[in-house]
Amino acid sequence: MTTFIEVFPINLSALPILYAYKLIIGNNDMSTIGWKFAYRLRAELGGHWVWSESKIVGDKLVSELEIKNIVEVLWQEQPEVYRNLQGLKRDIDFAITPQSQADFVAFGLFSDIQREIKLKLSQKNHDLGRAKIERTYGVKAWVVNDHPSISISVQSNLIYKEDFKTYAAKVADPNQLLGIMVEDKGSSLKDEIVAITGRLIDHRTRLLSLTKKDESKALINNAPDDELVVSVGKSRYDYIASALKIVLRLADCQRFGVDSQKALNILKIEPKLRSDIISSIAEIAKKQNFIQNAYTSGKNTNLFLSSESIGFSSNLCFGNAKIGKHNEMLSSLKLYGVYRRAKNFSENNPIYIGIIKGAKTESLEKFCPALQEELSKLKFKSEYVGLKNIQEDSRIKIEEAINILMQKEKQPDIILAFFNDNSEEEGSAYDKFKSITIGRGIPSQYIEKSTTTNTFALGNIALGILGKTGNTPFALAEPLPYADLVIGLDVARQKKQNLAGSLNATAIARIYFSNGDLLRYRIHDAPLEGETIPQNVLQSLFPIDEFQGKRVVIHRDGLFRGKEKQVLKSWAKQIGAEFYLVEVIKDAVPRIYSFTNGEVKQPAKGDVFKLSDTQAFLVSSLPPFKNSTPQPLQIRTEAPFTIEQAVHSVLSLTLLHYGSLRGTRSPVSIHFSDKIGGLVLKGIKPKDLEGTIPYWL
């Protein structure tokens, strides 16, 4: 068996001589104009230009006069954007790095073959009636073992056949267009519509000055005065409606009359097809001598690790210290019982269950006894102590039902709510139910209509009930040897209305023992401005009495921002602790494959591609379907914590989700971060901002 990855080493011999230039600017916010200025240089001077490592890197030497002329034009055309720009100067002291070389190939040279790649991919499109599925590609720069490299990925976009201009003309209120995902017809830019800018008559001159593409200028010149102009993405790029096409997400399918299940089946790309498509793109790049063959475990043995080589074990500890495998979790629970039983049920007391049943939901005649039987198999008695039918899912009716149930002589330990499948909608019955129960500290479980007829879901529901009522179903059989505690750290972010940036609603920390048993959660409830968790907040999340002298692995959902690392290290030093910082990045990570008996297949859980001593890609979980390709995580750390330890800590905590019989993609320390943050942003949070019950399950 061979493992390989969609990452390719760059052919250094084919690279031109590169030159670095530094922006002379009146403030420190260079990134906002770095890429824009690089794009302008290519349009004006030719060659290839990219923004890399806070420098503009290109393959042309330019004179000070040429730069001066371009800057003066930009001052006139876009004074707001470029008012602090003073010039561009060659940086002769900057040594071109592997990262700069990788960026240059990914974002510079690949533009030369973009048309040929798109033509090749167009042969893989699928028709779905009102929509079509287009295969697109992405290129990203990496440094692998100090060598510049690029990844090639393929994505599937569900495109509405009616373009944005035609659709927008049918909408009575333009504000209904906000939130629609669109893509620039002339590039790969894809994002949500964030604002309605106005009509073209008021913006034509400005838009013509902003673009250097002849096609874009022709489109703007030929468009009527009343054509809509919209802002796209957090960078707020302005587009006329006819320049955009609509990209559908699965949640949009019903609104646009598209069969979501049929779309989903085609959107998923099985490993062999995905690998074949990427190979066809790579061949085009190889003909230009940009890249070499992909990294493989056969040729690059030191870069590929397995779950065994990092010491990972899927063994779990159940009742009476009995050991079982993760893939035999349910049978082990039935055989041995839970790892730790809550005091309420220590004398074999039953779990009291209250039920709220919404209108037009499935009969519970079969479901309720089946759930009791499932809990009994897990060695828990249960008793239903009340059922309240409600005819409308208004907040007042839901709250009245909860009040009645909580006034029963036998007060329920948990309330189950059965409603129709609308939990993702804003203001849904789910939001109302959870707002009341979580806010009052009442364990609760929302069960959608479709779940009541799914016998396979019973195990998950029973497991979630045990976790939410204070039991610990299982823990790691082998505690992490390098840590006393593991912390998951996240910030719930909310976009500002009509402004760039975000208002960070709250910081959330989940604290686990080294065997994965939850110690507590802690929520900092004051709104935080900006991208960084402030020093006083970080310190409050890591109090001395719990963390002094401890070895602590900190899983950050995404990147550490601003000075968070320095603050954490300083605080650790002050309290005599060791903080090991681990970033877990979920988006835009290259995929890993296995080649077995002549076939391209899914990799194994725990397969790792090691970029360096501090960075790796990890296959943390496998999708339930064999025809899907798993999405790895990007793991980053820093010495003295090794990348092997960081990967091991993440992989181990994917085994400990009490709401599912399957492992999770993210470690439980940060799993459901988006869900928890989303609830908090809606005001759905526990009244006690510290607790020991995982209410988010």
UniProtKB/TrEMBL annotation:
Belongs to the argonaute family. Long pAgo subfamily. This is Protein argonaute. It holds the Pfam family Piwi. Residues 414-685 form the Piwi domain. It comes from Pseudanabaena yagii GIHE-NHR1. SUPFAM superfamilies: Ribonuclease H-like. PROSITE patterns: PIWI (PS50822).
